[in-house]
Write a structure and sequence with these properties.
307 residues; mainly alpha; Muramoyl-pentapeptide Carboxypeptidase, domain 1; Lysozyme; three-stranded antiparallel β-sheet; 12 helices
């Protein structure tokens, strides 16, 4: 039999952090929009007979909300009844579909700033993070690996990499929505990267070829590339390498996240970090020699660009 914990919705959410029913979002989180205007959230509509990890996450969250549902990845009649009861508790249309109006009332904020986040919600986030290519053990505990995985997910989706999974982060996890300006996404051609580096100020000849080869070795010329690093002596909480030249957000904190994800701004930051294209030692692919595999092609391309 399905049951809701004997707490009024407002009290339940004051404890869990999901806000007043009259509010549009369950908890505050900065909008990724450069203008500061809220962006529309995307949520997958789950209904009876759906299966998969999204359903597992929903069932874990429903159980945490007090509904006795199986956690088997099948959106069955029992799960649908639980969704209807949740919807009635929040004065939502009880259609049994877990969609845009219902998801925000089901999720919990997860992160260091929310130490009371329930284990079931953390486990749901960990399972979805792993499916997104940010593998973490489903321990149900907040740890550095989970915070780093959340930061990686956020950066990849053009969200502020706080390590705190809020409403936009859950939306990205569940809908795979990217909150990035479309003109800043994708893989560039090598000649485009050469022109960006040249416009930033890198000299023609070997410096320009090295800059392009490093970008290819670091990010495979993907403007939205993000890679996580574990804790180091200089960055005890881990760090992220972001964008074309994989600028490290710990050692180069002066480079903002929007800048790192913007190809032109990333190139300008690369020029400054490399001491105007003369010192490539900050890049591990240069020190290890990985850039050399790309150098012959880069030399050919940059020679054409500099004609």
């Amino acid at each position: 039999m399905l049951r809701l914990l004997p707490l009024a919705p407002l009290l339940l959410c004051s404890l869990a952090g999901c806000g007043d029913p009259a509010e549009g979002d369950p908890f505050a989180e900065p909008s990724p929009a450069a203008s500061g205007e809220p962006l529309p959230l995307a949520w997958p509509p789950l209904r009876q007979d759906h299966r998969g990890s999204d359903v597992v996450a929903a069932q874990l969250l429903l159980r945490q909300r007090g509904y006795q549902v199986p956690v088997d990845g099948r959106f069955d009649a029992t799960t649908e009844r639980a969704v209807r009861q949740l919807q009635r508790a929040w004065a939502l249309p009880p259609d049994g579909v877990l969609g845009a109006s219902t998801w925000p009332r089901l999720i919990f904020e997860v992160g260091a700033a929310s130490p009371a986040a329930p284990a079931a919600a953390i486990t749901a986030a960990q399972l979805l993070l792993t499916e997104h290519g940010h593998p973490v053990a489903p321990t149900g505990q907040l740890d550095e690996a989970t915070a780093l995985a959340v930061s990686e997910l956020q950066a990849r989706h053009c969200l502020w990499p706080t390590g705190q999974l809020g409403v936009y982060g859950w939306s990205a996890l569940l809908s795979h929505r990217r909150y990035c300006p479309q003109d800043k996404l994708g893989t560039l051609a090598m000649d485009e990267v050469a022109r960006l580096a040249r416009q930033a100020g890198v000299s023609c000849g070997e410096p320009l070829a090295i800059a392009v080869a490093i970008a290819a070795a670091e990010s495979t010329l993907r403007t939205e590339a993000v890679h996580g690093n574990g804790p180091t002596a200089g960055c005890p909480h881990g760090s992220l390498d972001v964008g074309l030249w994989q600028l490290n957000d710990c050692y180069h904190a002066e480079v903002s996240r929007p800048c790192a994800l913007d190809a032109t701004c990333n190139a300008r930051a690369m020029y400054d970090i490399s001491d105007r294209g003369t010192n490539w030692s900050p890049w591990s692919t240069y020190k290890r020699g990985a850039y050399l595999a790309w150098l012959p092609q880069a030399l050919e391309i940059t020679a054409s660009v500099c004609r």
